[in-house]
Write a structure and sequence with these properties.
This is Dimethylamine monooxygenase subunit DmmA-like C-terminal domain-containing protein. The protein has two domains: about 5-80; about 85-125, no CATH class. It is built from two helices and nine strands. The protein has helices at about 25-40, 55-65, and strands at about 5-10, 20-25, 45-50, 75-80, 85, 95, 100, 110-115, 120-125. The longest helix is centred in the first third of the chain and has 13 residues, at about 25-40.
Length: about 130
């Protein structure tokens, strides 16, 4: 069985780790590496994603879209303050720690809702 550990941020590598380990400062830096890992994943593949909630959920959504099943993915959140927010006006994704955010796509002000889409790996933003 192949194991993959994706670490976003400064969390330590878990003791006894065996397999491919990728460490990145941000989710944007990790995407191409993670996509190459997903492209070579076989049945029985296991992945542990460690990092901020927004990165962990984004990696999970990407893995599921690539054909992984939920049981193959372990999520360890190190910081739940940062959330990805989906803009229903333009489809843009923004990241925030606040209860409102200016959309990075169309610049409208969005209130961060509690509704979470596992497919988009984002909370729904509502225009103010």
């Amino acid at each position: 069985m192949t194991a993959t550990i994706l670490i976003v941020g400064d969390a330590p590598v878990p003791p006894g780790t065996v397999g491919r380990v990728g460490r990145f400062e941000s989710w944007n830096e990790a995407v191409s590496w993670f996509d190459s890992v997903l492209a070579s994943a076989l049945v029985g593949w296991r992945c542990t994603v460690i990092g901020p909630e927004s990165a962990v959920r984004a990696a999970r959504a990407r893995a599921l879209a690539a054909g992984a099943v939920d049981d193959e993915i372990t999520m360890l959140v190190t910081d739940s303050g940062s959330r990805r927010v989906y803009c229903p006006s333009c489809g843009g994704l923004s990241t925030t720690r606040a209860s409102a955010v200016r959309c990075s796509g169309c610049s409208i002000e969005l209130v961060v809702g509690e509704h979470f889409s596992p497919v988009l790996a984002a909370h729904l933003g509502s225009p103010c």
